[in-house]
Amino acid sequence: MERAGSRGGCSRGRKERQHQGMSHWRYVTSVEASTDSAFWSRQPPASDEVRVFADGLVRGVKAHQGEIDELIAKFAEHWDIDRMAVVDRNLLRAGIWELLWGVDVPPKVAINEALEIARRFSTEESTRFVNGLLDRVRRELCP
């Protein structure tokens, strides 16, 4: 798998961008273009940097969704991806994309950010599940 760019430090506002990216992801799963102004008009004000990050996250996950979903199915033994909670499934998709194709963030930081969102929007059990799956992907597939 070819990565896009190089890893660097964590930038300011990254958690906000990831959360907004996840909200954006839920919205655009049924919309062709991820730059829909109607979506952004219903969100708290966001900088251009946030919008660019969210669009990149959504486009990246959508471009690799088949491969990402295969990895989720492989690493989430005895779990049907369609039966996972939407938040958990989307966090896994975004986290795997960041681990394998994303840029500018070390793998452990990407996982920790996914866990912070899981703690806020999901259950403790889901947080452990997301952590275990993303860490396994990191150990087995990250360079």
Features of this protein?
143 residues; mainly alpha; N-utilizing Substance Protein B Homolog, Chain A; 6 helices; globular
Give an overview in words.
With about 140 residues, the protein is mainly alpha-helical. The protein has a single domain (about 15-140), classed as Orthogonal Bundle (N-utilizing Substance Protein B Homolog, Chain A), CATH 1.10.940.10. Helix content is about 65%, strand content about 0%. The chain contains 6 helices and no strands. The chain has helices at about 15-30, 35-40, 50-75, 85-100, 105-120, 125-140. Helix 1 crosses helix 3 (about 50-75) and helix 1 crosses helix 5. The longest helix is centred in the middle third of the chain and has 28 residues, at about 50-75. The termini are close together. Residues about 1-10 and about 25-35 have low confidence and may be disordered.
In CATH, what is the homologous superfamily? NusB-like
Largest sheet: none
> C-alpha Rg, in Å?
14 Å
Q: In angstroms, what separates the terminal alpha carbons?
A: 10 Å
User: Which percent range describes the beta-strand content?
Assistant: under 5%
Secondary-structure map with pairings?
Layout: H1 14-28, H2 37-41, H3 48-75, H4 86-100, H5 107-121, H6 124-141
Brief summary of the model shown:
The chain is mainly α and 143 residues long. It has 6 helices and no strands. It starts with 13 loop residues before the first helix and ends with a helix.
